[in-house]
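[job 0412] stage=complex_fold ligand=S-adenosylmethionine status=START
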Amino acid sequence: MPSLTWIGKDAVLNHHLDVPYRVLEKKYDFGDGEPGNKIIHGDNLEALKSLLPEYEGRVKCIYIDPPYNTGNENWVYNDNVNSPKIKKWLGQVVGKESEDLTRHDKWLCMMYPRLKLLQKLLSNDGAIFISIDDNEQANLKLVCDEIFGAGNFVGELIWKKKQGGGNDSNNIVVEHEYVISYAKLLSSFSLGLDTNYQLDEKLYPFEDAKGKYGLITLDKASIQFSPSLVYEIISPSGEKLKPRIVKGKQSCWRWSKEKVSKQYNDLVFKNGKVYTKYYRPLGVTQRSLLVDTVYGRTESGNDDIKAIFDIKPFDYPKPVALTKHLLSIATDKSSTILDSFAGSGTTAHAVLNLNKQDGGNRKFILVEMEDYAETITAERVRRVIDGYGEGKNAVEGTGGSFSYYELGPELLKDGFINEDVPEQTIREYLYYTETNHVLPQSNNGHPAHLGNFEGVAYYFLYNKDETTTLDATFLASISEKADRYVIYADNCIMPQKFLFDHDITFKKIPRDIRRF
Ligand SMILES: C[S@@+](CC[C@H](N)C(=O)[O-])C[C@H]1O[C@@H](n2cnc3c(N)ncnc32)[C@H](O)[C@@H]1O
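[job 0412] stage=complex_fold status=DONE, emitting structure tokens
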């Protein structure tokens, strides 16, 4: 299988493992309602890592709209990658002035570790959708093949972003962008129907309790002829009907005699002919072209944000219609949705609108690194929740809530547990490193107990003010029976043989705390 190489790739292949684990510090809650929605201010590389203990394998839909690397965006590459090549770039703004061979290398170095973490966060039945344009589409596709697996490629949507105009381009006026999609596991994933697709309503002129329908004759000359399919059907009024001869060719029924007798009530008798019904579908299988205005345009994205801020505080926000459409085909009512390049917060806007429309309880997680995370991203979400404006331009509130976070201190600093980190956060981290699962809400009552997983009981004997010791007194305080015990403490004075005989693994704090 072909794969892409670029300058700096070796340095970033496993960079996601070196990213420090930082604690998410809640700054405030906004609104009423069930908790769960999050807006995080910070670099998404660190924020995604911080989300792993709670969300690994639990995000149903990721939508990202990263910098397209147009050369005009001034995005900053400042990941702390320990490689001389990358160090040379550190903190450099990737803009027009760096229109050199390394602009694409830098973009790929930026995206690679983030996509790695995003892949971990997806649930087995989940998928990622990535907006992109021609600047990086081809590179992104190859990198995603590598990270998500070419076999998990769901498809590529082509979104028409603008209508007409623009004869100023050199050869081709580009009116579209792409949305590339990969499933975590294609065999466990299914995309919902597109209910926006304009069906030809003339095809469904009738209606009954099951919905709108059209009619199709039961006899057909175009199907494989079989003498057993030529027989008499008697209508409720006693009319005797046989398949017609069409242009000199004997047609036959599409249904066998048995099926007709079983489903006689599904037949429609009209003007001397027999018909079956076909119902108007709820939607169609997603088409690759998103051309209709129902999927929004760049212009409608501007209008969406202007309706909330009166001005346009953000360039090129995606339309709510596009994002909402993607969510409508890729989520269910209780899904968690992540956007780690949140910008003006369109994804949260779309989640709140969709929940309001269908009574859903989807949750969003947004990450935005710029300072406008509070003044634009969170402010937009507040105004969507509460409603904004008056009169005919008023935007009705959706209700809902969110919590706002900053990236807090690193959990492990210079090899030691950071004493400023709350013990509960350390417990969550440890349990996750041991089991890849979320720390259970309650334990067995023992203060050091974290939880049990697959027969193993995990204990964390920690006191930030004094040294802890795994000794006979501590062991005597454990009353539960487990197949095996993993116990973290500063020291252990029990003999190796005793630990071995009692299926106890001692892990030294901080030496044996795993980084991920
Ligand atoms: C193209 S915009 C997204 C626009 C968004 N879809 C909307 O509709 O408003 C990309 C956003 O990603 C943010 N971003 C870029 N690099 C980031 C990083 N490393 N961590 C978090 N956010 C980042 C940028 O600041 C920018 O706001």
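The mean pLDDT is 92.
[job 0412] exit 0
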